[in-house]
Amino acid sequence: MKPNLHKFLLFFILYSSIGISNAQQTDSTVYNKVKTLHAEFQKEYAPDSRTKLLEMQVEDLDKNEYKFITTEAEAEKKLKEKLQAFPEVTSNIVLLPDGSVKNKTIGIVNLSVANLRTRPSHAAEMATQTLMGTQVDILQKKGGNYRVRTPEGYIAWVPASSIVAMNEEEIKEWKNAPKIIFTEDFGKSFATKDTQGNRVSDLVYGNILLLLEEDENFFKVEYPDKRIAYIHKEEASLFKDWLSSRKATQENIIQSAKKMLGIPYLWGGTSVKGVDCSGFTKTSFFMNGIVIPRDASQQILAGEEVDVLDEKGNLDPDKALKNLQPADLLFFAAGKANSPNARVTHVAIYIGDGEFIQSAGTVRINSMLKDAENYDDFQTRTLVGAKRYLGKQDQQIQQIATHKYY
Questions:
Q1: Residue 202 sits in the same domain as residue 142
Q2: Does 394 share its domain with 291?
């Protein structure tokens, strides 16, 4: 190789390497600025991604192209204004619901229990569940999945086959039609009045269906997807009658909770098929006509505080016995020993005399009193607070009778 050509090639390689390095540095700098901006907006407008979204996606790092997805109109507006300071950035800000759902932005759950997950995949972690007849907001469609918002504001993904999407006219028809609610723990509907005939689907407590006709023994019902079935009248009630009979008293909340004794723990579960700790408390209140937040860390932010701790932040049994009332919620943090501000990880319902009912392995009753046979040492040591919901005015505690989703 000629000396001059060799020098030229070395110079070209060195120059190219510097160019690539500078381009990468530039992209990295821009990316970090956009990422910082996103973090700031997320903290302000969507601090809890379970109920509000502000996601950032890198479309093309080399070209500084980014996509933002949000449920918050104010965040969309302000982010557009802020990104004008970054002329090198090409951004696409999508406000949900987006065009992927067209004009069908409302859905009705079409399975006895629909499983909602953290990502649009059957392999993803289960986040929560919704019951048949429940109205949800449809925010986005990706492949065979919808991203939806539940009545308590929880956002997650569900298979499109679990939901019947409706436009405004269709949902108005659904909401105005008479309905029944299934009130047994478990059951099924039939294709005819012959209960030895074909089953249409399984049913669980809280399932809601349209009422077409009724006779002495059966309700003739319609599913969201227009299937027709028959349900024994002794296993269901007219929805309006059920609503008017709901009285959220201490006794009724405890009675509903005890109906679930022995039901297995299920991460993300909110039905009588299986419940996690907060799904259990949520279901106990739902059975009495009340919608409460989904997770334990959200439930502790509602209601009125009940003083049960001593000066060191540990359970004071005397204070707890004096101040707690049945149906109060008890909150626990597994990491309490390591941090005074540990995240709430568990919730239970106080039932009186130092005892509480919880979903831990199964739904069971334990005590916070050391001399009791059913004393739960771990939960007692990790207790971080208590809240009272009954009789308290709080926008996070809503009556089903006046809830727009029902």
A1: no
A2: yes
Q: Which residues of 41-67 are buried (b: 16+ CB within 10 A; e: fewer)?
A: bbeebbeeebbbbbebeeeeeeebebe
If asked whether residues 327 and 344 sit together in one domain, one would say: yes
Q: What is the pLDDT of residues 69-115, one digit of tens each?
A: 999 999 999 999 999 998 999 999 999 999 999 999 999 999 999 99
- Round to whole Å and give the CA distance between 96 and 93: 10
In a domain, 37, yes or no: yes
Query: Do 263 and 383 belong to one domain?
Result: yes
Among residues 379, 360, 359, the alpha carbon closest in space to that of 369 is found at 379
**CATH number of the domain within which 336 lies:** 3.90.1720.10
Show the CA angle centred on residue 333, arms to residues 331 and 334, nearest 5°.
Answer: 135
CA neighbours closer than 13 Å in the CB half-sphere of residue 357: 23
Beta bridge partners of 362: 264, 360
365 forms beta bridges with 357
Cross-strand pairs, 8: none
CATH of the domain at 223: 2.30.30.40
Q: Which distant-in-sequence residues (6+ apart) come within 8 Å of 172 by Cβ? A: none
Q: Are residues 138 and 155 in the same domain?
A: yes
Q: At residue 363, what is the residue type?
A: V
Looking at 71, 94, 117, the residue that finishes a domain is 94
Q: In this structure, are 188 and 151 located in the same domain?
A: no
Sheet holding 90-95, edge to edge: 54-60, 65-70, 90-95
For the chain, the domain total comes to: 4
Place of tokens 């569940």: 129
Which helix (H) or strand (E) segment is 17 a member of?
Answer: helix 3-45
Domain containing residue 197: 177-245
pLDDT in tens, 333-390: 999 988 888 999 999 999 999 999 999 999 999 999 999 999 999 999 999 999 999 9
Same domain assignment for residues 277 and 389: yes
Separation CA 143–CA 86 (nearest Å): 33
User: Are residues 121 and 45 part of one domain?
Assistant: no
- Residue pair 217/233 in contact (Cβ under 8 Å)? The answer is yes
What residue type is assigned to position 123 of the chain? A
- Whole-model pTM? 0.90
Closest CA to 169 of 215, 105, 234, 83: 105
Locate all alpha helices (DSSP H) within 177-260, ordered by sequence. Answer: 239-245, 250-258
